[in-house]
Amino acid sequence: MTATTSTHAKPTRRGGLWSGMSLGHWLALLARNHYAIDRPFWKDALGVTVTAALRTPIGWLTQLIYGGQVAATTIHKPPLFILGHWRSGTTFLHELLSLDERHTSPNTFECIAPNQFLLTERRMLPILQKKMPRERPMDGMEVGLDRPQEDEFALCNMGVPSPYLTIAFPRHPPACAEYLDLRTLDEAARERWKNALLEFLKRVTLYRGPERRLVLKSPTHTARVRTLLELFPRARFIFLVRDPYLVYASTVHMFDALYGTYGLQRPPFPGLEDQVLDTYLRLHAAFEADKGLIPPGQLVVLRYEDLVADPQGVLADLYRALDLGDFAQAAPAVERQLEAMAAYQPNRHVLPERVVQLVNTHWGPFIDRFGYQRRTGPQDDHAPLPDDDDAP
């Protein structure tokens, strides 16, 4: 394990990530895990059960009112997908791109309550926002229900199998591992997954307006390029890479904090390091296999270090390369955001020699492929800008 320094803010309810599920999907999740909730968290699980029971009829009513409009909604502009392993800078880039008024992204409220937000967001978001922690439990960065969020959480709350369900029962084997890259699913399961993602994105488009481009970020999508192109042949992609040593340290820390903050089981969380090592390989192997399917002019590969060194310049280059319009329209908002983040102090990671050797052994080919130098001996590092995180 790596040593990390950070400040943790606790959520109001441990299972709250899943409180937007229908009651049926929530009870199915509990049953699949044999109701193995540790005693201190029974009250939290009961609270989510009550919330899910109350929200389920609202979901039915939302579908009754808006179902026809959602079905008739067309996503005109090709979405922009931000790809990259957890802690590679994807959240940082996602927030910067979402500042452009020509873009839109699903927010945390919509991803936690994907079945109800069309009916409830305008009234409920301001109320719930006051009860939310203002900082993330992993790194102290500002959060809010109105901030851009990963659509993977929306899929979870729509009842779609996802590796993220591991967060709820972190002492159990990784959940739904086959849904990381979708490659071994039968055609019917893949179609259900595609239909669920399209349904959610149509809901967001209906709510925000069809004239805005969807900017989407879920690290899991890095392994799903083939399937995403089937849905959106003209989609744009940005693939972020970052120093693998820092990615490893930060990812282990992130999931340890996620499991400890949102899980319904207490530590220790066995197999976490092996899970991070294996998932990195699977994620990048799938991307390398499928990136050749992306048509010319629809993919940019970007180093995190370049992004934090010159955010404005890199964004201007991205806009030109991917034909996103004139960056000058978004530049003032980006500049204000960067100024607001200037005082942020990132987590600091100490990498023991054992960790350096572990990363060299397992990820050596990717260290070389991405143009980083192999390290030897213990390291003491910190990131120059936000230590990216990928969860609410």
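^ that was protein a. below is b, sequence first then the tokens
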Amino acid sequence: MMARLTAGVTRRSAIPLALLLAALLAAPWLVNDYLLTMLIIILYFGYAGQAWNIMMGFAGQLSLGHALYLGLGGYVAATLFTRFGIGPWLGFAVAIPVASAAGAIIGFLAFRFRVAGIYFAILTIAFAEFARIGFDNWDYVHASSGLFVPVKQYAHNNPWLLRGDPTMFYYVILGATVLLFVLCHFLVRSRVGYFWLAIREDETAARAAGIDTFRYKMIAVVVSAAMTSFAGVFYAFFYNNLFPEQVFSIFRSVEIILGPIIGGIGTLFGPILGAFVLKGLAEALSSVMTAFGIDLPGVTQVFYGVCLLIVVVALPDGVWPPLARLLGIGRSKP
């Protein structure tokens, strides 16, 4: 179940993409605070889904423990801010090598000793669980009591410290999502992107053709981990709290990967579209249940499972590929 790796943004898709970007830029003036918050959450998962898609969609390495990099990014930036007054952007600069090192360790252990497929996925889950248990008992970051980012009243938005109103957070995550989209566009058009495609489709054949599969899989893991760490930084300063049971949990990892699966793994638009479809429908369901006074614990998880089942059965390549063909803006593999 994997859509073909696209060759980047095509001329036909450039105009719809520009219109979508224009609509997103104007959104804060067109929607209320509730819908704006929903858009922030959707873009957050769209960003995280793109970061995961680099590793799985482009290079074919299944990670089910991506919450590890998200949690590391959040804890590094939040700890530096709360204990030393270092702003989140400098914290992100520190989080990148920390998350990259974690990804490199996992990748080295897996790829050097030929741990692949489902066993590699289990290895990523194990490291995320190790981190969850470790942070849950580490007093320096307040262990299971949670790490809280101080909230102060600012007369004006302060993007440097990520302190301000929802509109500021919206433009920050929109900018990050757009920048990561552009990065992915250039990656899939690059030499590295085509090597990833070869590894994803048939690693044995890629190795026989002279591709250093170990090196390029490591690049995919490290880049994906580094980009995911920003999602953790944003999470920490948007929600102002971090709990190991939340940020490192397997459910957090599943939330990250559902968007790309629904939208289309290996495509540029898929992770973002999947986030809009999944989170939009989930919120609509929640609103309807609230309106009728229905309270069913775990209904969101059940809804995610139903969506995943529908996609696996009816749209194995995700929502984006058939939609692109319908709109006449798709493009076959490179």
